[in-house]
Sequence to fold (917 residues):
Amino acid sequence: MKLLLKSGRVIDPSQDIDMVMDILIEDGKISRMEKDIPISETTPEDNLQIFDLKDTIVTPGLIDMHTHLREPGFEYKETVQTGSEAAVAGGFTSIACMANTDPVNDNRSVTEFIHMQARLTAMANVYPIAAVSKGQDGKVLAEFGDLKDAGAVAFSDDGNPVTDSGLMRHALEYACSFDMPMISHCEDTGLSSGGLMNEGFISTQLGLPGIPGIAEDVMVIRDIKLAGFTKTSVHIAHVSTAGSVQAVREARSAGINVTAETAPHYFTLTDATLRGFSTNFKMYPPLRGSGDVEAIKEGLQDGTIDAIASDHAPHSSVEKDVEFEYAANGIVGLETSLPLSLKLVHDGILTINQLIEKMSVNPANILKIPKGSLKTGSDADITVIDMNKMWTVDTDKFRSKGRNCPFNGWKLKGKAVMTIVGGDVKYADSEI
Amino acid sequence: MKKKKVVMDAGEIERSLTRIAYEILERNKGTDNLIIIGIRKGGILLAERLREKISTIEGTEIMSGTLDITLYRDDVLTTGKRPKLEKTYIPFPLDHKKVVLADDVLFTGRTIRAAMDALMDFGRPELIQLAVLIDRGHRELPIRADFIGETLPSSLWENVSVNLTDNRNTDEVVIEES
Amino acid sequence: MNLSRKDMLGIVDLSREEIDFILDTAESFKEISTRKIKKVPTLRGKTVITLFFEASTRTRTSFEIAAKRLSADTINISASTSSAVKGETLVDTARNLESMNPDIIIIRHSAAGSAHILAGLLEQSIINAGDGAHEHPTQALLDMLTIREKKGTMEGLRIAIVGDIAHSRVARSNIYGLTKMGADVAICGPATMMPMDIDQMGVSVYYKMEDAIKDADVVMMLRMQLERQERNLFPSLREYANHFSLNRDNINMAKDDVLVMHPGPINRGVEITPEIADGPYSVILEQVTNGVAVRMALLYLLSGGRK
Fold:
């Protein structure tokens, strides 16, 4: 099967390329990338598909490094299959999935199970992230070596923080010795306990217990200090506060190996949206105030925040259509992440090249996976983006099982119109 | 320009009220256990005038009260609006009393039906009589007045208003197209 | 004027004119409770359901009496939200009730936003009888009626609210209402119970009783929930009572004709001493009487249902 992608504006930060070019894909790999590949040069075989991608942007396949696929254990909320369908619909060719499944992914059999499900059913590449501690209880280290051998790409107790600083120190040291990334969910549960939304004027007005921004800040600072002390590296998940951004910025200038990601809702929504008590705005970390939203945008702009990751967290009606305080935390994100992030480009906060870095190149580097580039010979993982296509978010049409989305009905500008994974077209808008 | 006609002037109203006062006294053989209760807005000033006249004629004070019938109306929940509640002031039980209800205009009779239901919640009057300044016909219930100032035939698209004020010289009864 | 609303969920949405209108209507209803036959036929044949997920005798009884005095039929449902017993969801309960065609549903729940869920889901009029720490609009309305009755107006009055402000729906609703009506509201409590940025609601914040109640026209004491002690919000009831209770000594800081109010039930000896609770400044029992009148007014005004 050969694919010829013609006339798209190819942006590949890994090769410093930004120009209109054609791409030829053969046997699941990128075989040629040049201006104007004439069709006669390729043998006219029956299985050559040609796509005219004029007026679109062609990039290395996007990578969402923070998703929850809920399998094994919570298949009613999502499966590897449905999660991957949502991913390719959102323009993602690779996704990394967190370990808070049931059973927790803290041993090789669960990691291997996820790989097997991915191989059999998934539309995108799936990279399991295994737990830091057994059961994600924060007490005993999981078997990092075994998990790496089974195919895990990183360790995280996401869903929970690693509260015991001694354990976190050892986890950082141990992971480093296997050359594996550590992803930290930063939350001081003493400060956040009982809280349901950001602590601020809105929570005061609504009578809802608050989660102060410092519950995140103090743990970000702790992890930065630990990484510096142990001379290892740490990746901060779902940054939401100005304090966290500032801490990462300062650590970076002090030469500490810290990377950070944020999710689109943290630069799109504030805690004012909680006024209607809709559970579609309830997640952890919570939506923050407008000052934090501005700080996140600045952090993206000056490079402090390296990656955008959706924290795709599907839940069913059982968990969400209940009283606010009983509702589970989390919203889906795979199918809206790119369009919401494109708004940063439309608003002049990032260039499209910078955005591609944050959604493809950097996640690949952080997870140490061989993706995020269109170099000849690379896997043909490609995302085609129409930056100007107007569309309306309709959760009824989501491929994800989850409908817990705060953006239903929003009119957005720009989306992925085609997603190619390993040379196969896994998603295409009807017009292509 | 709506057609408007004054059907009773201040002098005519005064004379009617005087006659009604005498009729009330005659029918009830004096003021024993007599109470005048004015209904809602229109009947309140009327009741006050009657009370004053009766006191003057007989030389004794008689009891009076005011009744807001909004909560007893048969259309209280069917219209979307909530008419403003006025106060009800009946500070004594009505058992064994002769109640004279006073209202300005008797029309469909529904107000009087509501008033009687309300009065029953305050006790068991010996009798209830009705005094009105104008009876304009078009009854929808079997209600009649005992004491009438003037019977005024009207059509349904006309409005009859009794305008009493503290300055008695400007009292008038007016009928106009609605 | 009209109260063109389907629901009564909170004071935050009410205008000053609407509050005046409700209080005026409530005043007219007070008289009915003094008659020998304490009933008017206004809501005859209407069904009023009280759906209480939190135990409460006084508020529920007040609503029940209000509905019955308007000749409505009342049904009381006590639902449990004990997490050990995961029963029917709120949404399912609401839909089941809807199928029985009630006219008005009154809900009290420990989770903020619960009344909003019902209001969005059901055609019936929903009255919020208290949702978590968020709002308790009928309490604030009856408090305002009491103050207006005794003082003539709320405009310019110095009103102190003392207690666990962070967890108090009574405090929130009263702050919304009293500031709208032009009062000068001072709030006071331990720093651990004072929510962030609450001064942005137009109140002055104090941590010492004496400063808050100085020259106050009204002092409103909030009930201290004894469970708060366990969460390290204050060390002991004794300490709380020593610093934040209204007693014979500090009452003198307020004006001579001060009104002492309390939403009830009172913790005698904790937030208020018995002699103050029973003393000449207390209007606590009048609050209860006005509660029935306010609730009658709301049932009457909202019973039009859908607009």
Q: What stands out?
A: Chain C has a mean pLDDT of 91. The first helix of chain C runs from residue 16 to 30.
